[in-house]
Amino acid sequence: MVGLLGSLVELDKAGLLDCILYLSGVSGSTWCMATLYKEPDWSTKLDTVKDKIIERLSSSKVSWGNAYNKLKKYWEREGKNGKDFSLTDFWAAIVITTYVKE
Predict the structure, then answer these.
(1) Which pLDDT does position 82 carry in this prediction?
(2) Which of 9, 19, 27, 75 could, after both became Cys, cross-link 79 (CB 3.0–4.6 A)?
(3) In contact, 49 and 42? CB cutoff 8 Å
(4) In angstroms, how far is CA 57 from the centroid of its own chain?
(5) Whole-model pTM above 0.90?
(6) Cα 10–100–1 angle (5° rounding)?
(7) pLDDT, averaged in runs of 10, over the chain (102 residues)
(8) What is the reported pLDDT for 9?
């Protein structure tokens, strides 16, 4: 997440951000992309988006109740229907809540 954000900021500083047609990513970079795409004109407002990401990542607010409710909702939608639901899902919810604050 931080790596992609840093690359985009540096591309913007170098005046090369306009050359990008598509973004792709895996793992943490998709969290950055999801935040970018919430802002329709993100490429012209990259500083604002960057500040929002930094603020969220540096906050100490973690809502364990919200994380539990999301995990429970996912279980009700997927796990009860016989689809895969494992300790990995639980672990991912804890990691995302802890580090990404989302």
Answers:
(1) 65
(2) 75
(3) yes
(4) 10
(5) no
(6) 25
(7) 90 88 83 85 87 82 78 77 75 77 70
(8) 92
Beta carbons within 10 angstroms of residue 1's beta carbon: 19
| Total number of residues shown for the chain | 102
Q: What's the chain look like in SS3?
A: CHHHHHHHHHHHHCCCHHHCCCCCCCCHHHHHHHHHHCCCCCCCCHHHHHHHHHHHHHCCCCCHHHHHHHHHHHHHHCHHHCCCCCHHHHHHHHHHHHHHCC
User: Would you state the structure tokens that stand for residue 61, as one six-digit string?
Assistant: 């607010």
100 CB-near residues (< 8 Å, 6+ apart): 1, 31, 56, 57
Task: For residue 44, give the nearest of 10, 18, 80, 72 by alpha carbon.
Answer: 18
| Cα–Cα distance, 80 to 69 (Å, whole number) | 15
**Cα gap 63→102, rounded to integer Å:** 9
